[in-house]
């Protein structure tokens, strides 16, 4: 605290965040979103997200001191970057406000209230951008300032009004956007990834308000004859960079989080089917051929298809009586009904596989062949084919299966004595 009170500028310089870091994060967010934006280009919400991320990248690219100096040199006008950067910041603020309005109400919302709010935001912030350029044209700002333009020209006519205008416009947009986001976070029924993304966005916009407060305080101090320039030159830039990082992650998280979650569920389902898949391979004699470029979803589908294709003819050898006894045995051992059904099915399938290994299939068309029996005499395989995941998980516990099997195949008298 003593160091901060004596030399806050030196203290804050230790926490400097390069403008290229938020630029990289924002670019990554745009790259992640880009395939979806291109594929669903007609979706106005996705286009708005893409435009907002592109504007955010532009803000940090053009507001870095090196780019400011280069633009001033290329145009030959000292400080021409000021209205250009202010315009980008203002356009970004308006885009944020429009995006939150559209995102929360839905792109299909055409109510009069939504249309009126959209028109007000567009006309208001377009008017601010025009005013910024008009004020710069009227101002006299011959000395190039790369880092402290806001405080250096805080008392210069027209530049003073320009600086105040962009800061107020930025603060108003961030305040309204932040309020809309936090109200949205408190609503019921939000997806967990969306809720966390909104929370990061909310914190990012709160940091933007700290940026505005720092800038406005430094400018107001100049008006009163004091020097608090460190608030503008040393505190505001890292706060803005951190805010941009949180906003970028807030936009990425709902999409990337749900994508990774779905991928994890697919891989987990594929792994859970492995015991039943291996059992079906012993019955069938072969498995699913490996394809290097197959997606996880395709591999899961092929494994499920293979299991069901083998289970279907195998079901002809299932013993309904054994299945019923195994279910009762599993319930008797304290398993809940869903788990008991999976264990009973696993016991029946193992028995059918072992029976097939001992007894060859009847010849085609013989009196004992399945084709010669009535269609209605076959077992109902609907639930069996639908519960392959639960059955495969049951196969991972051979001790439980053996306990159920021993109880189901034991003579009735011995079970009663044991109980």
TrEMBL record:
DUF6545 domain sequence ranges: 263-394
Stretch list, region Disordered: 357-383
Keyword Aminoacyl-tRNA synthetase on entry: no
Annotated InterPro entries: DUF6545 (IPR046675), MAB_1171c-like (IPR050039)
Protein's UniProt keywords contain Membrane: yes
Keyword field: Membrane, Transmembrane, Transmembrane helix
Parts of the chain that traverse the membrane: 15-32, 44-68, 80-101, 122-143, 163-182, 235-257
Protein name per UniProt: DUF6545 domain-containing protein
Organism, as annotated: Streptomyces pluripotens
């Amino acid at each position: 605290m003593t160091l901060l009170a004596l030399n806050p500028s030196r203290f804050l310089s230790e926490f400097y965040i390069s403008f290229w870091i938020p630029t990289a994060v924002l670019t990554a967010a745009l790259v992640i979103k880009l395939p979806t934006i291109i594929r669903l280009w007609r979706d106005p919400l996705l286009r708005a997200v893409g435009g907002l991320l592109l504007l955010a990248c532009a803000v940090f690219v053009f507001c870095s001191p090196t780019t400011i100096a280069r633009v001033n040199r290329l145009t030959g006008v000292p400080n021409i970057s000021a209205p250009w950067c202010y315009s980008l910041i203002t356009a970004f603020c308006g885009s944020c406000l429009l995006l939150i309005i559209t995102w929360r109400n839905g792109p299909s919302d055409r109510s009069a209230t939504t249309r009126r709010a959209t028109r007000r935001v567009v006309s208001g912030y377009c008017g601010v951008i025009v005013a910024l350029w008009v004020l710069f044209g009227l101002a006299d700002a011959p000395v190039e300032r790369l880092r402290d333009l806001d405080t250096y020209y805080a008392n210069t006519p027209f530049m003073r009004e320009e600086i105040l205008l962009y800061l107020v416009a930025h603060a108003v947009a961030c305040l309204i956007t932040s309020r809309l986001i936090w109200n949205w976070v408190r609503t019921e029924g939000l997806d967990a990834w969306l809720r966390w993304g909104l929370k990061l966005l909310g914190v990012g916009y709160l940091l933007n308000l700290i940026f505005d407060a720092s800038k406005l305080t430094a400018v107001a101090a100049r008006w009163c004859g004091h020097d608090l320039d460190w608030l503008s030159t040393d505190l505001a830039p890292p706060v803005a960079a951190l805010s941009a990082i949180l906003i970028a992650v807030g936009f990425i998280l709902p999409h990337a989080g749900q994508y990774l979650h779905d991928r994890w569920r697919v891989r987990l389902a594929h792994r859970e089917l492995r015991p039943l898949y291996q059992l079906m391979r012993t019955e069938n004699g072969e498995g699913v051929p490996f394809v290097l470029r197959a997606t996880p979803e395709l591999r899961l589908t092929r494994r499920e298809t293979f299991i069901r294709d083998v289970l279907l003819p195998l079901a002809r050898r299932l013993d309904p009586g054994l299945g019923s006894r195994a279910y009762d045995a599993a319930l008797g051992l304290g398993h809940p009904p869903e788990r008991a059904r999976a264990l009973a099915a696993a016991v029946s399938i193992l028995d059918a596989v072992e029976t097939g290994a001992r007894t060859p299939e009847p010849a085609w068309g013989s009196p004992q062949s399945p084709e010669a029996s009535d269609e209605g005499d076959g077992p109902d395989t609907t639930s069996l084919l639908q519960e392959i995941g639960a059955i495969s998980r049951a196969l991972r516990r051979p001790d439980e299966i053996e306990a159920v099997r021993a109880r189901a195949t034991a003579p009735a008298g011995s079970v009663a004595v044991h109980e």
